[in-house]
Amino acid sequence: MSSVPNQDQKPKNSPSSPSHNEENAWVEGIKTIGLSIILALGIRTFVAEARYIPSGSMLPTLEINDRLIIDKLSYRFTEPQRGDVVVFNPTEELSLQYNDAFIKRIIGLPGETLEVRDGQVFVNGEPIEEDYIAEEPQYKWGPETIPEGEFLVLGDNRNNSFDSHYWGFVPRENIIGRAVVRFWPLDRLGGVDRSF
Predict the structure, then answer these.
(1) Model confidence at 192, in pLDDT bands (50, 70, 90)?
(2) Fewest beta carbons less than 10 Å away: which of 8, 9, 14, 122?
(3) Looking at 57, 72, 161, 164, which residue is catalytic?
């Protein structure tokens, strides 16, 4: 006659003890958090990142404290274009005084000759239409030819922008990415137009 096993006695192949399950939950939680951090850093490094606007140099297009998404991926496949609003690291000369990235609009492309005079920007002798600027530039600059692999960038608030007309051109390798979407404030939610 076989005996009925004691119901209070744990079978040999029973699931792990509660303390072991708690340990597994902690390990899984740490793995999940670690993977999330790695993915977030990977996305921020190679795909997109959020930035805010600290100054009025891009008025009226971008206002102080606007929050933007910067596309870092597309410039791996295409070259920056005139009209793109770009975030870039300071040039070597500027990096002695500034650590933070700048945001400006690309106006001049490699090989082009630019001049600012009579309240107008001229590219290769032809005036360009700029309906996005705060006011006409009240300074004269150039004519100057942009070296290969470099870009001329200006703020949309032309007369109140520390940009290429002060310190020169931006090397291609300094460009981090292009501003594509404003996500804050909500009443200004939308794309950042190239305007060209």
Answers:
(1) confident
(2) 8
(3) 57
